[in-house]
Amino acid sequence: MSGWALRPGRATDAATLIGIERRACEMLRGHEAYPVFARSTLDPDDHAEAAARGRLWVAEADGQAVGYALYTALDGAAHLAQMDVDPPYGRRGIGRALLEQVCTSAAGEGFGRITLVTLRDVPWNAPFYARAGFGPVAAGDRTPGLDAALEQERRLGFPMHLRVVMQRQLGQY
Known about the structure:
Blueprint: E1 5-8, H1 14-25, H2 34-38, H3 44-52, E2 56-61, E3 64-74, E4 77-85, H4 94-108, E5 113-119, H5 126-131, E6 135-136, H6 144-156, E7 163-169
Parallel strand pairs: 4-5
Antiparallel strand pairs: 1-2, 2-3, 3-4, 5-7, 6-7
């Protein structure tokens, strides 16, 4: 890990992390999902709650946050709610390190799997997660919480034909 390191997130990181989320969203400009991403971010309270539970991890370079991953619990599994890397720091392994830290942390809490919802057609979304051991979850295998998350996204206007639910078993990859 040259030039950056991971640390637990703090509630006071929220504004900085929301800024990273907004800048990362700009990489989707022109994509069908961009308008929805551009008008929605996690709430500062989501960051504070995750930090208090040890479920927020931050990548730092030169004393500033450059990426983060935040997970929650959903129907007995860990659920990656958000992960972003500031675009100038992309393609340095930061996203993969954040993902692996979240998986390690969630496994340490006793979760047997981690789920997420992402875009299937963006290289740094579903293909990235597939390379990290995630596979798609069939509609019939989704939990009520995952179905509720998808329904909330549908109401926000996400292009649902581009969304995919994925999961990874923890402690086995």
